[in-house]
């Protein structure tokens, strides 16, 4: 009898943690770390007070758990695409991964909002995000930059590595500012057809210089 009871307790604990993480991701992305209290998170999650301390230990540890889950989803979405694209022609590989990144960012738009917010600071949260998410993604962009031939066309209006990185990251800005997008355009930024249209267009725009460069040779 004790084993089923233990499994039930574990299930309840996992469900509580999932509710807290979901609420935390939402509030941290909407209000930022400082303006979000653990009490607000617990109220939104519909759980008892002090359960963040019980399950995670501190607000800082809880924030890291929220970020780990959020950015882990994007990483899990990108990793198969990275593996699948290894043998693709370099410029098409860049296009393929840009499209996948934009779709992942639309699905998890809180990530872009958080990066925009924390990117203005120089605190421990930015350091954590850089180490666990931004730096690995920047390294991928640098690899694509070299493989795609951007260096070969430098001096002809071509981007640097860091400029390419922010062009790719910035391409997901509309999903972080969904309310503004909708009010300006009257369109739903999360409409699947619009996401695909945007992903395809940005992939072409970002690699257009490379295409022209190859045609000149």
Largest sheet: none
Element pattern in H and E: HHHHHHHHHHHH
Model regions low in confidence, pLDDT < 50 over at least 5 residues: 212-217
Shape: elongated
Structural class comes to mainly alpha
Beta-strand residue fraction = under 5%
Number of strands: 0
Arithmetic mean pLDDT: 89
CA radius of gyration is 20 Å
Number of helices: 12
Q: Give the termini separation.
A: 75 Å
Query: Helix proportion of residues, in percent?
Result: over 70%
Structure description:
By secondary structure, the protein is an all-alpha fold. The longest helix is centred in the N-terminal third of the chain and has 30 residues, at 2-31. The chain has helices spanning 2-31, 38-45, 51-56, 59-84, 90-107, 110-118, 124-148, 161-170, 173-176, 178-185, 192-206, 208-216.
Question: In a few lines, what is going on in this structure?
Answer:
The chain has 217 residues and is mainly α. The protein is built from twelve helices and no strands.
């Amino acid at each position: 009898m004790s084993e089923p009871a233990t499994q039930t307790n574990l299930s309840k604990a996992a469900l509580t943690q999932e509710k807290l993480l979901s609420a935390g991701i939402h509030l941290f992305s909407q209000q930022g770390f400082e303006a979000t209290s653990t009490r607000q998170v617990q109220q939104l999650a519909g759980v008892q007070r002090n359960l963040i301390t019980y399950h995670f230990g501190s607000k800082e540890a809880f924030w890291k758990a929220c970020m780990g889950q959020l950015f882990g989803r994007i990483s899990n979405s990108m990793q198969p695409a990275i593996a699948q694209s290894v043998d693709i022609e370099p410029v098409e590989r860049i296009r393929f991964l840009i499209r996948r990144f934009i779709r992942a960012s639309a699905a998890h738009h809180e990530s872009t909002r958080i990066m925009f917010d924390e990117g203005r600071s120089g605190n421990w949260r930015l350091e954590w995000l850089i180490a666990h998410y931004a730096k690995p993604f920047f390294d991928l962009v640098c690899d694509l930059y070299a493989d795609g031939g951007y260096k070969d066309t430098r001096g002809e209006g071509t981007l640097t590595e860091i400029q390419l990185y922010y062009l790719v990251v910035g391409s997901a800005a509309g999903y972080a500012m969904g309310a503004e997008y909708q009010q300006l355009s009257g369109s739903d930024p999360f409409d699947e057809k619009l996401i695909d249209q945007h992903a395809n267009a940005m992939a072409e725009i970002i690699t257009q210089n490379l295409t022209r460069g190859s045609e000149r040779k």
